[in-house]
Amino acid sequence: MRIDIITVLPQLLESPFQHSILKRAIDKGLVEVNLINLRDYSTQKQKSVDDYAFGGGAGMVMGIEPIANCITALKAERTYDEVIYTSPDGELLNQKISNQLSTLKNIIILCGHYKGVDQRVRDHFITKEISIGDYVLSGGELAAAVISDSIIRLIPGAMSDETSALTDSFQDNLLAPPVYTRPADYKGLKVPEILLSGHTANIENWRHEQSLLRTMERRPDLLK
């Protein structure tokens, strides 16, 4: 899989891909992540990529020219399954979207910035818009890292125990059940006896019941 991230702040995105599961997946050759500096595609002397909005108003807008130049250059080298734009008004990221994106071969993620991008970019170059929550960040870089993390960890071989991802919260529209580890008794705080029983079927039933209860209490909307 290849993920090309277009950003005005590539340095901000270096760290997330240099540690843990993401780094291991990259080192194994399971995924290639490229941080592309949008300013390299600017024709302006100062390499600016933004300008004032037509009609006035506060804030700057990312221009169409450098973005179009960048995406066109990338598409000249390969075919992309999705060109994603990180935006507060995009589709809210969920596990189903991450599962679907993890099966693709090549994707572009355009990091929003300032007051957003020229609408013509969204109309003619973007195939999917994603939000990671109902709030506004300084830029789309952190959102791009979140999206990438949610995708890469699902690629077969990225995790040492591939079955772990299948039991994550949201995979079956349920929150994950409580988990415990040693010691079984910490100053009177004990692990539920069922988990120490060794009875696999009973343990799985308990975990499913706990998932249902937790989902009903915390995220009843998932059960709809």
Provide structural commentary.
It is a single chain. The protein is 30% helix and 19% strand. It is an alpha/beta fold. It folds into two domains: 2-152, Alpha/beta knot (3-Layer(aba) Sandwich); 167-223, tRNA(m1g37)methyltransferase, domain 2 (Trp Operon Repressor, Chain A, Orthogonal Bundle), CATH 1.10.1270. The protein has a five-stranded parallel β-sheet with strand order 2-1-6-5-7. The longest helix is centred in the C-terminal third of the chain and has 19 residues, at 200-218. The two termini are 33 Å apart.
Instruction: List how many beta strands DSSP finds.
Output: 9
Mean pLDDT: 94
| Biggest sheet strand line-up | 2-1-6-5-7
The dominant shape is: elongated
Total domain modules: 2
Give the CATH class of the largest domain: Alpha Beta
Q: Strand-and-helix sequence, N→C? A: EHEEEHEHEHEHHEEH
> What structural class do you assign from the helix and strand content?
alpha/beta
Determine the strand fraction and express it as a percent band.
15-25%
Portion of residues in helices?
25-40%
> Roughly how many Å is the radius of gyration?
21 Å
Name the CATH architecture of the largest domain. 3-Layer(aba) Sandwich
Question: So how many helices?
Answer: 7
- Summarize the biggest pleated sheet: 5 strands, parallel
pLDDT under 50 segments (min length 5)?
none
**CATH topology type of the largest domain:** Alpha/beta knot
Looking at the chains present, what oligomeric state does this protein adopt? single chain
CATH superfamily of the largest domain: SPOUT methyltransferase, trefoil knot domain
